[in-house]
């Protein structure tokens, strides 16, 4: 169905794909539909020219677009936030356009307008039970799918909008957005990426809404160690079927979104065995688990719900066990390996590790997407906290009876603005990273080899996903505390944002384990010599390490706070830090091996203080690297200056964070007071950021009905909105139904 629609579109749109972000679902569809004439022919790989991916360009702010009241509605003319908007030197609309163009604004507006006007998406007037939350999220998911807001035409015009569209949905409510993304996005995406043309009917049924999908890799006793999973699929030559079996509860597939109550089909990874008893590693299968007409589980399938979670209450995460359950031979996703009708396993990969990596390769884009999702949560939290801080008044000068907004206090600025800076810096990084990922993936799917690009993408995503999700975790918590007791109220939504972000730190790779992939890659390249980094880092995330010998001799030469805040100076410092930690970690592993430790033991015993810190700094340095590229492509003006301040603040806080390592390595030998200069620079930045803070929030905050917090409304009337929410809450002014237990206490037996 998708392929047929794509084939009916004019091929002149294909060239546009090369300068956009993409996702596997679209890319595979394009490859399979528009390149069908090349099937069976050996493609000649072309060298990937990465230079075209190393810039970001956003359109200039056109006056007619800035005047568009649909995309840039008038802000409230009065209220506590007005004076901050009046004193700002920037145009919030121009800042918003630095991250968007007209097409993205139109998609954002049309999507939110649909959600706001559709009765199913009205905010509940009372807290929902878990079952009610799942029921509502499911109805919303199908209503969204039926609306087809983001169809084939838009996909071809702007493949980058796949991720953008999902972020727009996540900003409103992550529950139905997650279910929709898993059920109609990831499920089809993985099948299209790993199928060999046998399961197009499954894709069609999914796109029509006849079946709902899910993705199952994790097991009860194995998560990150995918190779240790124990669900099996044994090929039966006589019936030409695979027999799926779960040996015990520890091998049950679990944490599968949509599986708890609603999905009918599952992409399931299992250990493949042929009839001769030979093991052929972990492979992906499409497994029907429920009858689409009744939602009853098929015989041989035990499927259930995992129960309540700390967040994402509308997503039904489930488990499944198989008892000699049979599926057709064609239901193996056979791109990386297949079993022929005679029962022989065949694969284009000779190296089992490479085949395993290829079978999981379709998941790599998930980590890129999570970086954006986590920043959506943090964006909402920081918008609430800063607007609240500008509205909330406490204390004042001793000689003045007027109270000051808490945003005026340096301590409040110091706790919030670093996270504010993170939001914008990560936003810039995500634009770059998503574009790089999409462009490279498209070239790969069009027949070009990925080589070093794929390895670097894997390493960078393995570092960036933990860095971005931890930034959201810590930032949301600080925002909650910065809003005091009111931030603890459920109506603030800060608790929900914190809980909904929490699983980002775990799925698609538990952060502390996943991040080891980055240091492993850096250390493996380092073992080949510094010059190898120039070859293996076409994206530029580690190319600078080719000059490590020179970098390690460099020293900070800041003389003033202004010099210390220079973005290039901060990037130079982070370059040194990565190079220094790489050398320290490499020396540590060599030392451990010389003492007789195995490679496994050396890696294990060099994580704390060494490899873990190296991976984190590598990811953090990439944020500043990409943000610097973004800023260099902006037009000069007050908006650019405001954004530069935020990136400087982000970079300065990173350098301050690792001050001990900088002193240990001698980077500040020529400038003993470097940290004092940097600290002074940060303190001087705070009031400058404060001046534009509300306008900057206006540029990134979603509309009030999406933000959905009385503490963060655009008019700043916190107490009016709180009063309305509290007074209208069901039962707020009524005595409890159990009032007799308060008054009479019949449940306490008399001692007489």
TrEMBL record:
Belongs to the acyl-CoA oxidase family. Coiled coil: none annotated. Residues 361-523 form the Acyl-CoA oxidase C-alpha1 domain. One of its GO terms (cellular component) is peroxisome. InterPro entries: ACOX_C_alpha1, Acyl-CoA_Oxase/DH_mid-dom, Acyl-CoA_Oxase/DH_mid-dom_sf, Acyl-CoA_oxidase, Acyl-CoA_oxidase_C, AcylCo_DH-like_C, AcylCoA_DH/oxidase_NM_dom_sf. It holds the Pfam family Acyl-CoA_dh_M. Keywords: FAD, Fatty acid metabolism, Flavoprotein, Lipid metabolism, Oxidoreductase, Peroxisome. GO terms for biological process: fatty acid beta-oxidation using acyl-CoA oxidase; lipid homeostasis. PANTHER family: ELECTRON TRANSPORT OXIDOREDUCTASE, PEROXISOMAL ACYL-COENZYME A OXIDASE 3. Residues 214-324 form the Acyl-CoA oxidase/dehydrogenase middle domain. Transmembrane segments: none annotated. Residues 566-743 form the Acyl-CoA oxidase C-terminal domain. It is found in: Peroxisome. Its cofactor is FAD. Pathway: Lipid metabolism. This is Acyl-coenzyme A oxidase.
């Amino acid at each position: 169905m998708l392929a047929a629609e794509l084939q009916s579109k004019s091929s002149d749109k294909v060239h546009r794909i090369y300068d956009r972000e993409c996702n596997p679902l679209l890319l595979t569809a394009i490859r399979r539909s528009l390149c069908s004439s090349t099937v069976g022919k050996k493609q000649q790989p072309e060298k990937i020219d990465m230079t075209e991916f190393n810039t970001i360009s956003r359109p200039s702010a056109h006056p007619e677009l800035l005047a568009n009241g649909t995309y840039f509605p008038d802000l409230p003319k009065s209220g506590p936030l007005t004076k901050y908007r009046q004193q700002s030197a920037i145009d919030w609309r121009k800042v918003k356009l630095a991250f968007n163009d007209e097409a993205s604004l139109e998609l954002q507006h049309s999507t939110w307008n649909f959600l706001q006007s559709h009765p199913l998406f009205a905010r509940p007037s009372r807290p929902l039970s878990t079952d009610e939350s799942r029921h509502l999220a499911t109805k919303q998911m199908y209503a969204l799918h039926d609306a087809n807001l983001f169809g084939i035409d838009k996909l071809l015009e702007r493949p980058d909008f796949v991720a953008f569209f999902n972020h727009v949905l996540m900003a409103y409510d992550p529950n139905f957005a997650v279910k929709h993304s898993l059920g109609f996005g990831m499920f089809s995406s993985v099948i299209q990426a790993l199928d060999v043309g046998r399961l197009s009917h499954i894709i069609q049924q999914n796109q029509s809404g006849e079946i709902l999908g899910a993705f199952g890799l994790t097991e009860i006793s194995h998560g990150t160690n995918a190779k240790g999973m124990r669900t099996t699929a044994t090929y039966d030559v006589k019936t030409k079927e695979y027999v799926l079996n779960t040996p015990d509860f520890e091998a049950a597939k679990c944490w599968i979104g949509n599986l708890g109550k609603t999905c009918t089909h599952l992409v399931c990874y299992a250990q493949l065995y042929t009839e001769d008893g030979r093991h052929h590693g972990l492979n992906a299968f499409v497994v029907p688990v429920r009858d689409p007409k009744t939602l009853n589980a098929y015989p041989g399938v035990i499927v259930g719900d995992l129960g309540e979670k700390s967040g994402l209450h509308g997503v039904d995460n489930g488990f499944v066990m198989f008892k000699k359950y049979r599926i057709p031979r064609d239901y193996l996703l056979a791109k990386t390996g297949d079993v022929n009708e005679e029962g022989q396993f065949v694969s284009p990969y000779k190296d089992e590790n490479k085949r395993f990596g290829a079978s999981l390769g379709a998941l790599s884009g998930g980590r890129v997407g999570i970086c954006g999702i986590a920043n959506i949560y943090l964006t909402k939290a920081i918008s609430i906290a800063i607007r609240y801080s500008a509205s909330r008044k406490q204390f004042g000068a001793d000689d003045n009876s007027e109270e000051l907004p808490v945003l005026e206090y340096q301590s409040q600025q110091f706790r919030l603005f670093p996270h504010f800076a993170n939001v914008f810096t990560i936003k810039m990084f995500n634009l770059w990273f998503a574009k790089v990922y999409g462009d490279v993936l498209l070239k790969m799917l069009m027949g070009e080899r990925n080589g070093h690009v794929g390895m670097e993408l894997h390493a960078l995503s393995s570092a960036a996903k933990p860095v971005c999700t931890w930034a959201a975790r810590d930032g949301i918590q600080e925002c909650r505390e910065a809003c005091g007791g009111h931030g603890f109220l459920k109506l603030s939504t800060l608790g929900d944002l914190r809980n909904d972000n929490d699983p980002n730190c775990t799925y698609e790779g538990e952060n502390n384990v996943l991040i080891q992939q980055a240091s492993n890659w850096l250390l493996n390249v380092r073992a080949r010599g510094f010059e190898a980094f120039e070859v293996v880092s076409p994206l530029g995330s580690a190319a600078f390490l080719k000059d490590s010998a020179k970098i390690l001799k460099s020293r900070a030469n800041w003389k003033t706070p202004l010099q210390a805040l220079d973005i290039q100076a901060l990037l130079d410092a982070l370059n040194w830090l990565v190079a220094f930690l790489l050398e320290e970690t490499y020396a540590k592993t060599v030392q451990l091996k010389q003492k007789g430790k195995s490679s496994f033991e050396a890696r294990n015993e060099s994580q704390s203080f060494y490899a873990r810190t190296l991976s984190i700094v590598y990811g953090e340095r990439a944020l500043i690297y990409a943000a610097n590229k973004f800023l260099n492509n902006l037009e000069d003006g007050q908006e650019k200056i405001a954004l530069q301040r935020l990136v400087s603040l982000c970079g300065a806080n990173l350098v301050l964070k690792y001050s001990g390592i900088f002193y240990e390595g001698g980077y500040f030998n020529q400038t003993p007071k470097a940290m004092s200069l940097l600290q002074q620079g940060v303190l001087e930045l705070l009031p400058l950021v404060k001046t534009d803070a509300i306008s900057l929030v206006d540029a990134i905050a979603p509309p009030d009905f999406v933000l959905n917090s009385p503490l963060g409304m655009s008019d700043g009337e916190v107490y009016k909105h709180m009063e309305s929410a509290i007074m209208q809450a069901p039962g707020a002014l009524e005595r409890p139904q159990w009032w007799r237990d308060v008054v009479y206490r019949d449940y306490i037996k008399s001692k007489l």
